[in-house]
Design a protein that fits this description.
The chain is α+β, with helices and mostly antiparallel strands and 259 residues long. The protein has ten helices and five strands; from the N terminus they run ααααααβαβαβαββα. A five-stranded mixed sheet has the order 1-3-2-4-5, with no helix packed on it.
């Protein structure tokens, strides 16, 4: 009986140990499973957030107009409309320097100098070296610290009259530019090419920041750049607008159709 009792005691002890071991393993398994579940949930949460951000960005981009369309509206003198479109670009791409630059030009053209300064400052902050240079010069100009610099009018004499020029009432085209105007720089090859197409029209460029051109700037009410003024043979203003043109053909067609 004593041996049976000893055997039964050992059996109970072994059973207890086995039960505890199995219980520990089960508990460990449950903890690992719970850990994996929490890990998977964390991954799912992060992925969900990234997808939401991506969808939000895509929606903002899809809602924005084309950049070319916004620039076209600026060139056409539709500053309010262009400004709203560039604002949509800035909402989608807050550090896009070119959008801030065009917003600054729009504000400047609308006479809102404080807002223009703010956007030129952001352009300087986010832009590359070239764009930063334009923005910094614009800020100097807006702050009233610019002096007379650059050359006087850059005149190009007209040649013999061409059929294209004869079809137009425009005898002379004036452009007012500044050294810091990025749009003016982009317009230079279009200006030169159009000049070659219309040899019967006289083309003159004036640096609006040159003090020697101050009277002309005032006479033609220049407040944004580039400003283009179309004159007839008697010096009468046929058109006065700001902005450039997309191509030399577009610019030439505009000159030929102005009466």
């Amino acid at each position: 009986m004593a041996q049976a009792s000893h055997f039964d005691g050992n059996s109970l002890q072994l059973t207890s140990v086995l039960q505890k071991t199995m219980s520990d393993r089960i508990q460990n398994g449950l903890e690992k499973k719970a850990g994996l579940t929490m890990h998977n949930q964390s991954i799912a949460f992060i992925v969900g957030m990234l997808v939401a951000l991506l969808i939000g960005s895509m929606s903002a981009v899809a809602a924005a107009p084309s950049f070319q369309q916004a620039v076209s509206h600026y060139n056409a003198g539709k500053y309010g409309e262009a400004l709203g479109e560039f604002k949509q670009f800035v909402a989608a791409y807050p550090t896009n320097a070119m959008s801030h630059y065009y917003m600054a030009l729009c504000y400047q053209s609308m006479g809102e100098r404080s807002e223009a300064r703010q956007e030129f400052t952001l352009t300087s902050q986010y832009g590359d070296a070239s764009l930063k240079s334009y923005a910094d010069k614009a800020l100097i100009f807006l702050n009233g610290a610019s002096g007379g610099r650059g050359g006087s009018a850059m005149a190009v004499s007209s040649g013999s009259s061409s059929p294209a020029a004869q079809a137009s009432s425009v005898s002379e085209v004036l452009e007012f530019y500044t050294d810091w105007c990025h749009v003016c720089k982009e317009f230079e090859p279009i200006w030169s090419s159009t000049q070659a197409k219309l040899s019967g029209v006289q083309f003159r460029r004036y640096n609006a920041e040159d003090s020697s051109n101050a009277s002309l700037v005032q006479k033609y009410n220049v407040h944004a750049y580039p400003t283009l003024v179309f004159l007839d043979r008697g010096g009468k203003v046929l058109k006065n607008r700001t902005g450039s043109a997309w191509t030399a053909d577009d610019f030439a067609d505009e000159i030929k159709s102005t009466h």
